[in-house]
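Quick one, T. Sequence first:
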Amino acid sequence: MSVNDIMKKPSRTDWESLAAMTDEEIDYSDIPPLPDTFFKRAKVWRPQPRVTVTVELDADILEWFKAEAEDWEARMQTALRLYVEAHKAYRQPQVVTR
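Structure tokens:
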């Protein structure tokens, strides 16, 4: 079963009842509390200005993203963002001389 098939299945959640509940009525017992180390490492990602560019890609890469979901552009953006964030620490600063 693909991710697309899973997302098309109707939800069995009673959303109206859930929306009517107060925070105190919701059972969080199966969700462990987040440790302090989570919050020490957590980062807030603020939206950045977008630019439109033309990029040449291998056809199979583009087709893979398009086949995954209708929001393929957002998923490609997320993949690139994760790559950048994971590699920031290893990037050597470039010296620009004029």
